[in-house]
Structures
1.
Amino acid sequence: MSIYDQYETVIGLEIHVQLATKSKAFCSDDTTFGASPNTHVSAISLGHPGTLPRLNKKQIEYAVKLGLALGSEISLKSYFDRKNYFYTDLPKGYQITQDRLPICIGGELEVRLKDGNKKIRIHHIHMEEDAGKSIHDQDPKNTLVDLNRAGVPLLEIVSEPDLRSAEEVDAFMTGMRQLVRYLEVSDGNMQEGSMRCDVNVSVRKKGDTTLGQRCEIKNLNSMRYARKAIEFETSRQIDLIESGGKVAQETLNFNPSTGKTAPIRDKENAHDYRYFPEPDLPPVIISKAFISELEKAQPPHPLALFNQFQKKYKLSEYDANLLTEEKLTALFFIDLAQHSKNYKAISNLIINKINPYLSESNTGLNDFPISKKHLSEFIQLIDENKVSNSMAYQRLFPEMLKNGEKAPLDLAEKLNLIQSSDSDFLEQIVDEVLAKNPDKVATYKKGKKGLIGFFMGEVMRASKGKADPKKTNGLLAKKLNV
Amino acid sequence: MQIDEKLISRLENLARLKLSSEERHKISGDLNEILKMVGKLEELDTEDVEPLVYINEEVNSLRIDEVKHQLSNEKALKNAPDKDDQHFKVPKVINL
């Protein structure tokens, strides 16, 4: 057993989620990402003296929605506090956050792992604001400051130290991203910084119940980096302990180009935030009526849908995963499943045809050219054997994409795809095929049963794909096995 | 609380200020005065009194989520001591 196997890694996360509001947390500046520098600003976000913050109602709504989805207790009364520190991208000299009493307490997120599900407990969720952006590498003598992001509303989700590996962190972040997207409280876009996390890592001997000294790795904005940072930090701490050293509590940065963590220089690390109540913002009081209204409007939970897709619709784990990744896709499936019981066909249609079309055309389901009604009719044509499966996908579907307004049945007729199950017609073709291939028939009769596929293919070709495969198969078997 | 050299240095660091020895001496006196004044309040028995944070009873002063009242880039940068055509400029914070 390797020395590393004697240890376990203990990880807790602080996830920052940027909320999908139109305006900022405490003033009406635009929150759209990617604007030219210092154009989404106002006297409030610039921290000018004499200005007063005023809370965006949506921030409360989004916080409560997320809390409800995680089973948190919603604080009927909560407060804001000031976290004081000096930094160039924090114009007021303090961040407005919730220290004394956050809006959501407790809760859990169930995540899917290779060897079963695991519930990760949430410590709390609090509301706060983002800082601006410091640009250190564009000017040789100065740091440039862009305050567009200053004041953008955030939720910070603090987990309990329940995670044990980079894989679990990955699953937790993936689950949380999916959840905030289902709830439509954030776009969860890690590249644009809408979701990033601080990772608290410690190690201990397996079986130990006390926690080891932890280090905090700041501001990881990609799952790949988070994974690498945790793996590096775990070995670093174990090596240190094994060589007789002690882990010091430190704040670390992860350097993607070296793959290593390193302490953040002391200058930024003066941890004395001198929290005190924010007197400019009155307490937030939430009514039970407000909570129950939001509760009623909650979308289905992604994990519940994932389970439902396997149990109710009998789909594979793989299909269920793909179909429930995005809420829109999952609801689209459920809509179609109300008109046809051929769930596997609907699943194939979405996964193999619709999704690739959407990613190629870079559009969303809302802009898909074929209506749900026509898609249902399309599935029905296959179900009722009016059009063969292969013809439906190869010929009819592309035609439907071009003529979204036309009914699939009309298009199928126009393309001459309506499958014939007329026995005389079929029998005639089968007889012709068998007559043309006497040697193959002989080989089949000697026991090479695999040739049935060859005959099927020939019948299909002769009928231009219109032969009903089931009936053809039956007829062939009957005639060959005399 | 004792205002000593160590505390002044810590405050200096937290406030990102560099004080001359004259200023340190002066601020140390000022801070002692302030503490003395606040210390006076401690003579009162506040055992059963809830801390007062909000001076009125207002709760939930909320805003509708809409975009307005933004400043132009030019106006935003107008009072900045140092700037380029888009950004605020400050002394270099990190040497990359």
2.
Amino acid sequence: MQRYVCDVCGWVYDPAVGDPDGGVEPGTAFEDVPEDWVCPECGAGKGEFSPEE
Amino acid sequence: MKDVFKAQKITEGVYWVGAIDWGLRDFHGYATHRGSTYNAYLVLADKVALIDTVKAPFKDELLARVASVIDPKKISVIVSNHTEMDHTGCLPEVIEAVEPERVVASKNGAAALAQHFPATTGIEAVEDGATVSLGNRTLSFVETKMVHWPDSMLSYLVEEKLLFSQDAFGMHLATSELFGDNLPRALLEDEAAKYFANILMPLTSFITKTLEKVQALGLEFRIVAPDHGPIYRRDEEIQWIVGKYAEWCAQKPTMKAVVVYDTMWGSTERLARAISEGLKAGGAEPEVMPLRGCHRSDVATAVLGAGALVMGTPTLNGMMFPTVADVLTYLQGLKPQNKVGAAFGSYGWGPAGVKQVQEILGAMKVELVGDGLKVKYVPDEKDLEAAHALGLAVAEKLKAVCTKS
């Protein structure tokens, strides 16, 4: 599954890992992450993420 | 004007052309008791570069200082290391006045500048590690995302081993003295700590990564020139400030306990005083900060150096007292690490205030001692003894965490 990078701080969302502390179970595709979810590192919104190249 | 406001030489070919804001006392909620400076720098090489600008009202002084050593229109490159308006306030006007060949910023910087100044076009994004040649001098850029904004980057003047460190290693201190080695070290440590506590505390993981990244690049720093406060040009002081940053990033607990409170009729205050006696009796070092006399930014500084945060609030209309809510909101954003703490306060008929403080401290991952000391109206002997005991308990907890770390 496609990984996504936070443009603000560089943190990588890996769907295999998810963000359990942030309420996102492992195995969740980025598209399915809730719209109000934020980057656990810097707080940036979902809109600040880009697909990892 | 150029005979009045002059450029100040830092080293061969590098000048300070910034502004001293003697009167500044509020920097977006940070009380700048000693004012500040906005540092901008001019590099006179085969090509001329301007590193950052200043807050908007000081534009004429900047341009006059530049003009005292060279015609401003000779500037061929302007570098924006950071988008925040204390450094870019007059960037659009300076660009218009100077007509440089290039204006560069990081990728996030170029995007952020476009949002700040939609009428200013042509700002070029530079990659992490990119360089700009000034002929006989080279500027190299190091992206430092979230130190302290997404757009932040450092500029390194390779041949002079001079780091333009932007906000890193900076402090709010208005002085006509340019260099740290001519200022008392205790003063620098005070203001550097305050700056770190209020601006950088939540970003320690990013700062640690940045320090590692810079180390890995193998760059030597002969001079460190921040965008606020004095310039460091001696090895010893550069090592000192870098060492302090590493120490502040680690946020190791200490025996210092900050007791912050407000009070409506003196009851919460009496509890605070009894708690501080208990802290002292237990071997901790209390610093009591009544909110009507202390500013949130000074509380943040105290918390940086402390192992414990003990917060007291009355209950007003079922809420914690507004000044307490202010400081807690502020501290919550600063994400202090490795703290022990407790909540306390007097109430009339519902101790909601103390409960709210307890909850927020918990959300901040403060290791809580007790469930919140709640006293109805005026504390009696037993209540003061309980407060004293709370202070003792926090001190015991501090001893345990300090020994472990």
3.
Amino acid sequence: MKLSREEVNDIALESRLLLTEKELDGAVKYINNFLDILDSFKELDLTNVEPFSFAEALECPLREDKVKAFTNTQGIFNESEHVDGSYFKVPRIMED
Amino acid sequence: MELYKLDLYEASKGIKDRKFSAQELFESCRERIDSCEGKINAFITRTDNAEPITENPYGIFAGVPTVLKDNLCTNGIRTTAASRILGNWKPPYDATAWKYLREAGAVLMGKVNMDEFAMGNTCGNSAFGPTHNPNDISRIPGGSSGGSAAAVSAGYVPFSLGSDTGGSIRQPASYCGVYGMKPTYGMVSRYGLISYGSSLDQIGPFARTIRDIQLVMSVLAQYDPMDSSCFREKNPDFTHHEDASIKGKRIALVKEFQNFTLDAPIAEAMKKTQKVLEENGAIITEVSLPVVSKYAVACYYALAMSEAHTNLERYDGVRYGYTVNDAAGIKEMFERVRSYGFGSEVKSRIIAGTCLTEPSRCDEYYVAATKVRTLIAQEFIRAFGECDFILQPVTPSLPHKIGEEDEDAMKGYETDLYTLPVNLAGLPGLSFFTGYDDSTKLPVGLQLIGPRWSDSEILNAGMILERHLGSPKIADGGVK
């Protein structure tokens, strides 16, 4: 299955990436080469194969549901330029 | 003797026996870095400008310096993943692996270079420029943990940490001539490791002796409730046993790999290593991995890119890293931050991952890849019913010159065939030194892999190989 320039650009926009013409050329080639290789999966009979998981744990790997305070919240806020009080402030979300 | 030349065990013992101080060792390492770093460029951030402070002078590391790959979070110290998008981010917490080292007395000399977000195998795909191989500075050190391997190879520090998603510890260890261990998935906590492919990522050590790898593993392999994939019921023992034996162990070669071309020094190393193993009582045998050899590369990249696309959604310029302040709306902010912040390889992988996981294509590609992964894991379980370890190359060739990357990205990826399957099945793998190539003088490494949780047994075998093949020397680092 080959993807067109427009389709690849649409996928990039979905990923919130604006590509230059050169980057788009590279991405189209990259993805189409890659999809060709993935088509090799069709040679395998995967009908009764379960998707992979590391299902060897003897117990469910959950920790106790107990609140534990993270003490360095100031360390988090120090790293953002978009802090307002104890919130992060972002630009307008709704578009015209 | 200059102190920087000591390995971890000797350095730690020397400090504890009061033959020299941690301060003297630290200064020797710092001088070594000063003399080579202009040629090697292993560091992103140096933290060796202050007096060394160890939290535990009686711990295993007793003040011995180390460096960390720059995708391991360090509280209050810049952590970039070699990407512009993280800018000058200073994490508000430590990665568990670093916390364990710190508590055992290790001292941080800095954060080292890597391919951006661990995506690459050259250490040239970094916002901070390429790292050079200390054995030949015109060549790549390998990647993505190229800075961690180069730092140990050049004698900056006796040991370091990296991460391995598809070979990122084992391949640079081999290219730089040091030992590198990719532990069983779940053996070492990933908490505080900047995620690339979460079901594949694993933290592990680099060092110049197997004993040192065992020492670091004994500290790293601890349960951590902050990582749900971390082991619980296992009780790993990384004690160094001088009398360890491989007598009667069945060590297999992969039948299908024998049709693939290897550069002469690597083919010779395979023969030499088999001879050493046989002379020490091991039985060389053969296993068949048809699905692995044909489908692992495609399976790996389908899963790694899908996971990367999800993991990298969080970089939006709101809470950390590079940002813009004049965007008209949030969509514009996200687009401008991500388009400037990510390098082209990362962008390509995000787009590929988005493509594979879209509802219209998900079953055909992503879900199919997760099923192929099951077949690969089952194939390894069957193979380890017939053998104890598998011996194989790390790469088919020695490191190429910087700037000689193949333009066809997928062709470059295929050189990862020997390393990727280990991550898909969550297995442990040791990249070990076999000697130097006569003509290029470059180190030649190979790989020993085993079933899940066989890490300490692999290291015992590695110790016997080291005894007979020799330990690597510190590279000249471009300084004659």
